Amino acid sequence: MNSPSTASGTSVLHSVGFKAFLATQFLGAFNDNVFKLLIICSAMNVLSPEASKSYVPLASAVFILPYLLFSGYAGYLADRYSKRQVMIGTKWLEVAVMLLGWWLFWQGAIYWLLPVLFLMGAQSAFFSPAKYGFLPEVLPENHLPRGNGATQLFTFLAIIFGGWAGGELSEQFKDALQNAAVFCVLVAVLGVVASYGITRTPSGNRSTRCAIDPLTPHLRTLLEVRHDPLLMTCFLGNTYFWFMGVLFQTNLAMMVKGQMAGTDRLVGFFQGAAALGIGLGSVACGFLLRGKLTTRYVIPAGFVMAALAALLGLSISKVWLSLTVAALLGFSTGFYQLPLNTILQKRSPEDKRGRYLAAMNALDCVSMLLASGVHWLLLNPCNMQPSRVFIVAGIITALVMIALARPLQRGQTSHD
To answer: Which CATH number fits domain 9-201+214-415: 1.10.10.10, 1.20.1250.20, 1.20.120.530, 2.60.120.430?
Structure first.
């Protein structure tokens, strides 16, 4: 498929089909965050503090694991079939998963909700390569940063409202969370309706074959990526974004409810502040890039992330200061991740884009599982307070930026 013409870029961004795509993405991310927060808050209300320390990292790992197991198959589907068809199919799967979750909330089966989280992760894993592969198919290169910025903004607006709604629903329906889960079923149905309006995409590469082993395609892809230093470094940099994201999200609830004695509603506000920052940072970076594929903002934004993560761990005595720091941390994170994500989409070979983006998801999954393991290690064997975890995260981030700086600069120079 030839790239869309430059002249058509703005009209595509404002088309009904692209708006339907943004709505579909928004509703899916919103539902994920509402449902996950309902489960986490429910567990922390029902289980003992010691049991919660194990349940929360485990819940995060269970949601992430399908990205490693199913991303190879998801990449095959995104390459083999129309990306629009794949997105529609995954939205129907979301409805089924939410219905199962509603029934388990009704039964009060807090541990049986972990397999539902696994199914939610599987649904998201199959949606992701189609979602990211959709953008370069319908947008020309000079509009791709703006398209990514809009997608990121809607994603993190969904996280904002999802965090707020999850906290509110958990607060209002503490003793009847099955009523809150009905809301998630309705949102999933709306997502199905929105997905049918997405811009039509080509049928895909019919010669693509699916490997039975889910990991072999990822290993083959990573070996191919090694020949493009800029792409490989962007893979690694984007992977660290998800490491920090999981560590931040799972640790935040424990810090707010544990150390700050906050409510479920306050947890939602904190997650919303960070998500709003990421969305606004992504949009601002998209406009500053002006259609150029450059990594100039990545390392400076990463060092700001490091400083703000440490500051968040030091500011828990003042709620409004902590909320402000969380929002600024999100803003710098948006600046850090958007250029990496845009380069990953554009430099991946067109006929293998689904496979490349699936390998990225699998690598991200390994990083997120590592984050869950690190979180458990810091909370339990190290007996560290959640606020100290943020300080450690800041130190780790600074070290990662030092490691990425030279290869990222060298890769960008060779690309230019």
So the answer is: 1.20.1250.20
